Amino acid sequence: MKKHILPAIKLTVLCIILFTVIYPVSIWAIAQLSDNQGRGEIIEHNGKTYYANIGQSFTSDKYFNSRPSAVDYNAAGSAGSNKGPSNDEYLKQVQARIDTILMKNPGITKSQIPADLVTASGSGLDPNFSVQAAKIQAERIAKIRNIDVVKINNLIAQHTDKPLIGLFGPEKINVLKLNIALDGLK
Prior knowledge:
InterPro entries: KdpC. The chain is mainly alpha-helical.
């Protein structure tokens, strides 16, 4: 037993040094080489500063509405709702979101609504939504802004991020960047 205690203590000290000093310092150093020194992508628009990698709340009819957030877009409290598909309160929230989308976008049906427009992400801060989520809102935005829907659809296509190396993940759109570009359309 005594012959195992000293190696265990050495291994513990080595792991503490490796995982609390060397690893964090190396990740920090790599981040310093990236754009914006690892602070994420910062966008300034109309005198305000936004982080492109944190979800923003857009509820106005003249904008593409964002994905719902279980934490009201509070980055300090990132979390999911922990409510399952059998929870009555959760089902009422989802149904209310569906009803709102159908009311604001009269030309669509319930089956056309993608899940990401009515369910919050695991972090509650997802800055992206699906291409389908943007397309079902295009008619409403074109009508409100008096812009041809073809221009709106072209804007959606321009802001669609393809899967990583064409294989990993779905196509997605950053809602903040899309809405800023939408403000730039005349």
